[in-house]
Every structure is written in C-alpha cells, then in structure tokens.
Amino acid sequence: MSTTPKPAIPNTTVTRNVHDLDRSTDNIYESLVIIAKRANQISNNMKEELHGKLAEFASSNDNLEEVFENREQIEISKHYERLPKPTLIAIDEFLNGKVYNRNPSKEQ
User: Fold this and answer.
1) Could you give the count of Cα atoms lying within 13 Å of 86 in the half-sphere of its Cβ?
2) Secondary element (H or E) of residue 45
3) What is the pLDDT of residues 1-57, one digit of tens each?
C-alpha cells in the first residue's frame, strides 16, 4: 500500500474540533493514541519508500561534486518534503473511518 496521500489532505496545520476526534472511541486520549500509532506507521512507510528510491543513487565512490549535481535525487527529496506530514494523514484517515482499531480491554 502506497502512503502517497491524496491531494485533499491539507499540507498545513488545521484547527480541529476535539469532539470530532472522540466520536468513534468516546475517549479523546484513546483516539490520540490510535492517531499517533497510525502516524508512526505512515512515517515508517514513507521513510522506507524514500530510502528505497534514494538507494538507487548510492554508489561507493561518491564525491562532493556528484552529490550536489544529482538532480533526480534532489527532486525525489523535494517531493517527499512537500507531502503532508504523517500526523495530518493519520488524522484524516481516522476522521474518515479508514483506520481499523480495537481495544481488547473494552471487548471483555
């Protein structure tokens, strides 16, 4: 699953109503833990994707001039810098019901 988000997710901070976050769990703290865990997953996936793409450019004899002249590598890095932050993606997924979560202590 690619973590590249849809353009509908804002790239900047958005003011949110706290009550929207606790609708599905009835507990704001539980909601925030779910969002934080999902944001970590997204962040790790994005990092793996970026490292995989940048690994193609790695060579054992890099010199300083080659590093600065590699335009493709710079464009890939800039693309990832422009993406929404993992936390914003996780909040959007949580609010739209795209995150599966369960609490075993509540199930008992």
Assistant:
1) 16
2) helix 28-55
3) 455 555 578 777 778 888 899 898 889 999 999 999 999 999 999 999 988 888 887
Residues 6+ apart with CB under 8 A from 97: 24
What burial class does residue 31 get, using C-beta atoms within 10 Å of its C-beta: 0-12 exposed, 13-18 middle, 19+ buried?
buried
DSSP element (H, E) containing 100: none
pTM of the model: 0.76
Of 80, 72, 93, 71, give the one whose Cα is nearest residue 21. Answer: 93
Q: Contact at 8 Å (CB) between 9 and 84?
A: yes
Say which amino acid occupies 27: N
